[in-house]
Design brief:
Layout lengths: L1 H12 L2 H20 L14 H19 L4 H6 L1 H7 L4 H20 L3 H10 L8 H27 L4 H23 L8 H7 L1 H8 L6 H24 L3
Helix pairs in contact: 1-6, 2-3, 3-8, 3-9, 6-8, 6-12, 8-9, 8-11, 8-12, 9-10, 11-12
């Protein structure tokens, strides 16, 4: 698994696209935090990052598929996937290596945003007057959400040999899993079932974690969705052997 992990990290960091994706994320997150009126912390009279954490998942919906789109699609197109599958590497080693690499890259992209928290900590009146528990919960939620989107992106890349198609599919799946269930639940035909549909949405669990109370049920749900998408990827790869 670690061989694949290092290979993926090196390929990403050795490409212009890799740095472009990271720069776009940092610029967009900075604009969301400091500039855009709807989310700028400067427009609030108190130190809080709620608007920032509300918008970042939608940045992830595009950022993470851009990271994962080449994971399997490029391997298929170049013919190296069959070569990998013949090596003494299990399918799970290949899948987890690519998944962990994508998740790690998102973590690297998130680290600079801790500067925003530090800035608010200093600028608060008095210093440190910020909901640290809520911020911590939101960061945990972001990491778990990134894991789900990374698994979705890996799955999207496994079902095609075209990187652009993989990107579009992954964006659609990520958006649907995050906001789709909540949007469908608002249709006035579900009655009491609407709450169940809301619960199936990733946004429900992400927002719950952002309140600062880490509920194991929210963590379990996000981890379960990630595992389900990785199992789906394995089924796709297994089907290629037949």
């Amino acid at each position: 698994m670690w061989i694949i992990f290092r290979k993926e990290i090196n390929q990403f960091l050795n490409s212009l696209l890799g740095y472009l994706v990271l720069v776009i994320f940092l610029v967009s997150s900075g604009l969301l935090f400091w500039v855009f009126p709807e989310s700028s912390v400067l427009n609030y009279g108190f130190a809080e990052m709620g608007a920032f954490f509300s918008f970042i998942p939608f940045v992830f919906i595009f950022l993470i598929p851009a990271i994962t789109m080449r994971s399997f699609a490029e391997e298929k197109k170049s013919g190296t996937l069959e070569w990998l599958l013949t090596k003494p590497l299990s399918e799970w080693s290949i899948i987890l290596g690519k998944f962990m690499a994508a998740w790690f890259l998102v973590l690297i992209a998130l680290l600079p945003t801790l500067v925003y928290f530090g800035s608010l900590w200093i600028l608060g009146s008095p210093a440190g007057n910020i909901d640290a528990a809520g911020v911590s919960g939101s960061y945990i939620g972001l990491l778990l959400l990134a894991a789900v989107f990374s698994a979705v992106g890996i799955f999207g890349s496994s079902i095609t040999d075209n990187q652009l198609v993989a990107f579009v599919l992954s964006v659609f799946f990520c958006y649907f899993f995050y906001s789709g269930f909540s949007a469908i639940s608002t249709i006035n035909v579900w009655a009491e079932s609407s709450s169940i549909l809301q619960y199936l949405g990733l946004d429900f669990h992400y927002q719950a974690l952002g309140k600062g109370l880490i509920d194991i049920r929210d963590v379990f749900y996000l981890v379960s969705v990630s595992l389900a998408m990785l199992f789906g990827t394995r089924l796709v790869l297994t089907s290629r052997r037949w």
